[in-house]
């Protein structure tokens, strides 16, 4: 007996909660490889009972099936909904084989072994059933002790039936899940077909041969030429981006230089006006120096009266007179001042 199984007195062999924690670190087991052979009678549960909760060793066994080609987030979300339908659930996932899928639905991208492995590594899956039937039979449901079946509510017409889940719904065992809009296997394949040339060129560039890609000789040469053209475009684009960066840097520096030049110009003009303007310091200094020069060159006024000169006995008498003050106006210019000084000096010589 498997160490993961125990016998409930009113139920059947069932993996314990320890197995659920183990699925986070190990792949989910295949149903045909487990040693749990259920011998005890399987007690049917109603949806109300399942939602109220069940004992730890009697989880609600929920079944979900599908093709799961190109396993994506839409698949994972559907399985997450199935796993969380009830407080204590055990999710079994059935995956149809290649033969059944190719017969009723069409060709797949991934083979059955790849699809099985993809499901084993989904965190919500507790057990994977390989080669699941296209239509669920009472024998299959009894064999795997399935309580409820989870799937989206859209009628699935296939294998000559309008809805392969019709009898499950009538038995009250069907639990609907919600589809994820915008993502499906068909959508992914449509993208690849639509952009086939892009992906073919991509894989040729990564080392795949034309034979592996099923590409003709002419198309191979065309794709390789397009790859070379794209490389040249990328180089030109890089050069343009670098040149734009250089131009932007030059513009930034030129703006900085112009701004600094304007600031310096304003400062220079302000200093010039402060020094040489109408009220500048240079004018005041010039006026002060001019007034000092005028004071230096202008003669001082003589006294109003002076004592009478005594006549020398040896000389002839001369009339006595007094010096009268002479009103002089200050010279209008330094040249006039120098001329007046020279004339005064000549008069003194004549007197002598």
From TrEMBL:
EC number(s) stated in the UniProt entry for this protein: 2.7.7.15
User: Where is the stretch described as Disordered?
Assistant: 294-352
Question: Where is composition skewed (Low complexity) in this entry?
Answer: 302-322, 334-345
Which pathway does it take part in? Answer: Lipid metabolism; Phospholipid metabolism; phosphatidylcholine biosynthesis; phosphatidylcholine from phosphocholine: step 1/2
Coiled-coil blocks: 222-249
> A Gene Ontology MF term for this entry?
phosphatidylcholine binding
- Pfam families, alphabetically? CTP_transf_like
Q: What CDD domains does UniProt report for this protein, alphabetically?
A: CCT
Q: Which residues form the Cytidyltransferase-like domain?
A: 63-191
**UniProt keywords, alphabetically:** Coiled coil, Lipid biosynthesis, Lipid metabolism, Nucleotidyltransferase, Phospholipid biosynthesis, Phospholipid metabolism, Transferase
Give the domain of life: Eukaryota
What is the reaction catalyzed? phosphocholine + CTP + H(+) = CDP-choline + diphosphate
What's its top-level EC category? transferase
Extract the Gene3D superfamilies matched here.
HUPs
What this chain does, per the entry, is described as: Catalyzes the key rate-limiting step in the CDP-choline pathway for phosphatidylcholine biosynthesis.
Q: By its UniProt entry, which PANTHER family does this protein fall under?
A: CHOLINE-PHOSPHATE CYTIDYLYLTRANSFERASE B (PTHR10739:SF20), CYTIDYLYLTRANSFERASE (PTHR10739)
The name under which this protein is listed is: choline-phosphate cytidylyltransferase
Q: What broad taxonomic lineage does this protein's source fall under?
A: Eukaryota, Metazoa, Chordata, Craniata, Vertebrata
């Amino acid at each position: 007996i498997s160490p993961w199984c125990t016998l409930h007195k009113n139920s059947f062999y069932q993996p314990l909660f320890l197995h659920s924690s183990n699925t986070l670190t190990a792949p989910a087991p295949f149903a045909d490889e487990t040693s749990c052979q259920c011998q005890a009678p399987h007690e049917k549960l109603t949806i109300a009972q399942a939602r109220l909760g069940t004992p730890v060793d009697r989880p609600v066994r929920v079944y979900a099936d599908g093709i799961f080609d190109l396993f994506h987030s839409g698949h994972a979300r559907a399985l997450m909904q199935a796993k969380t339908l009830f407080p204590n659930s055990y999710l079994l996932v059935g995956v149809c084989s290649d033969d059944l899928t190719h017969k009723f639905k069409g060709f797949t991208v991934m083979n059955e072994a790849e699809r099985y492995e993809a499901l084993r590594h989904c965190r919500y899956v507790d057990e994977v059933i390989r080669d699941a039937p296209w239509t669920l039979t009472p024998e299959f449901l009894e064999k795997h002790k399935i309580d409820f079946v989870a799937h989206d509510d859209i009628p699935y017409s296939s294998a000559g039936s309008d809805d392969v889940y019709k009898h499950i719904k009538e038995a009250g065992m069907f639990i609907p899940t919600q589809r994820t809009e915008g993502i499906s296997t068909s959508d992914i394949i449509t993208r690849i077909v639509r952009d086939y040339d892009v992906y073919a060129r991509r894989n040729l560039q990564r080392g795949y041969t034309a034979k592996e890609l099923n590409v003709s000789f002419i198309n191979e040469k065309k794709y390789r030429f397009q790859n070379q053209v794209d490389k040249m475009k990328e180089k030109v684009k890089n050069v343009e981006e670098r040149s734009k960066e250089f131009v932007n840097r030059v513009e930034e520096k030129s703006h900085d230089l112009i701004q600094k030049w304007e600031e310096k110009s304003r400062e220079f003009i302000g200093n010039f006006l402060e020094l040489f303007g109408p009220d500048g310091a240079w004018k005041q200094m010039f006026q002060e120096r001019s007034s000092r020069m005028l004071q230096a060159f202008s003669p001082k006024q003589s006294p109003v009266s002076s004592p009478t000169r005594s006549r020398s006995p040896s000389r002839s008498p001369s009339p006595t007179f007094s010096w009268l003050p002479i009103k002089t106006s200050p010279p209008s210019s330094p040249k006039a001042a120098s001329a007046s000084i020279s004339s005064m000096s000549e008069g003194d010589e004549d007197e002598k």
